[in-house]
Each structure stands twice: as structure tokens, then as C-alpha cells.
Amino acid sequence: KAVVSTQSGHYGRGPRPPSLLKEDDFKEIRRNMKSYTRDFEIKDKISQSKASKELVEKRRTVYDEFMSYRRKKEKELEVLKLQYIELREEVVEEEYVEETIEFFMKEEVESVSKE
Asked: Is the pTM of this model over 0.85?
């Protein structure tokens, strides 16, 4: 009869096999754990920096592509502005005619007396 326990350590497992390391090996590992940790952290930092370098390079590529696209569009906009200014100058010269209008007004002076 199989019994399923709710404890995670007892779920479908048998006994643990004996370790292949001797007690002296365990002591040596515990003694050198700080140096092992330091070495692994250095290797992790190197792999992370390599990944971050790849990410930075990818971002740089995307940025350069965007900037080249932007410069291209700015040049096109400048050409359009110049064309617009040329068209506008032609319209301005034809549209406006200078006129002078004079009005003559009659001036009357009335004296007011105090009573």
C-alpha cells in the first residue's frame, strides 16, 4: 500500500544514497568556501558584464539606426521648407499692392460761453 505524505521531503522518494566524498573532503570544502564564493562571484560578474556589453552594443546599433533615419528626415524637411519659402515668396510678391488712402475732414471750432 502506497502512502502519500503532504511533506515535500517524503513525496515519492527513497533513502538518500551515501556521499562519494569523505569527511576530510567536506572539511576542506567548508574551509575554502569563502574563496570558492569569491571565485564564483568574479565569474558571475564577468558573465554579466559580457551580457551587458552585448546589450549596450545592441542599444548602440538601434540608436545609430534611429539617428541616421532622423538625419535623413531632417534633410528632407529642410528641402521642403526651402520649397515652401520659394512658393510663399512668389505668392507674396503677386498678392500685395501698396495703396495710400487719404481722407479730408472739415474742422469746426465752436466757442462755449459761460452764462
From this structure: no
